[in-house]
Specification:
Radius of gyration: 18 Å
CATH topology: Rossmann fold
Helix content: 40-55%
CATH architecture: 3-Layer(aba) Sandwich
Strand content: 5-15%
């Protein structure tokens, strides 16, 4: 079982954001990235399920609805492993601030809801170091769903959790699915030392808190890019 390991092992620092769809985490991470870049720091950004090597296989499997919970989990882990080995780990070793829009905790939450064993999931991702800072944007289900459904004319099959048979109505299935994921996040937040941000606060207030937290935990001047003259 993974509890926590490897924090501070590398010269770089790993910062991850987690939360429900519509929690505001992606907006806040983008604003943090721009702030760090404007300070002249070495920053790298990566997001969940974005490996070009795995993307076609994932899309094909989802489109044809061929994925069991186990294969779904394994494909996403393969995607993560590819990005971890090619991007995240090398840049941590090179002394970068690596920003991750979702990390292994997304798999722990979503795949557990799909019926995968938590112990199996923790062992599956056992190769990955844990973040130095994990920001959990704790947003109520009602607010998060309102943000997503307000700007989304149609939900995708797996996005709505339709593969779980929760409801024949995609929107009701999505609500139930997200509610179960939220419960998983709450169950793991203390164990993995999530730092909670109130996702209902104004965007500016959230970002101010995020910047203050990062500046207090990390010596940012240490990660300034060196200009070669």
């Amino acid at each position: 079982m993974i509890v926590s390991q490897d924090r501070g092992r590398y010269p770089g620092r790993l910062i991850a954001v987690e939360g429900l769809d519509g929690s505001g985490k992606s907006t806040q991470l983008y604003l943090l990235k721009r702030w760090l870049e404007m300070k002249g720091l070495k920053v790298f950004f990566t997001e969940w399920n974005s490996s070009l090597l795995i993307k076609k296989a994932t899309s094909k499997g989802k489109k044809r609805q061929l994925l069991t919970p186990t294969t779904f989990s394994l494909i996403h882990c393969t995607d993560f492993a590819d990005r971890y080995e090619r991007q995240i780990l090398p840049l941590l070793k090179a002394g970068y601030l690596v920003l991750c829009d979702r990390y292994i905790y997304t798999a722990f939450a979503r795949d557990a809801v799909r019926g995968c064993s938590p112990d199996w999931l923790h062992n599956l991702y056992g190769f990955a170091c844990h973040p130095d800072i994990t920001l959990f944007f704790n947003t109520s289900l009602q607010i998060a769903l309102g943000r997503i459904l307000g700007g989304r004319p149609q939900l995708k099959y797996h996005e709505a959790g339709m593969d779980l048979g929760l409801s024949s109505d995609p929107y009701e299935s999505f609500r139930i699915f997200q509610g179960k994921i939220y419960e998983e996040y709450l169950a793991m937040k203390d164990r993995f030392r999530f730092i909670e941000i109130d996702g209902a606060d104004p965007i500016e207030a959230q970002q101010q808190k995020v910047r203050e937290l990062i500046a207090a935990e990390i010596d940012l001047a240490h990660y300034r890019s060196r200009t070669i003259v």
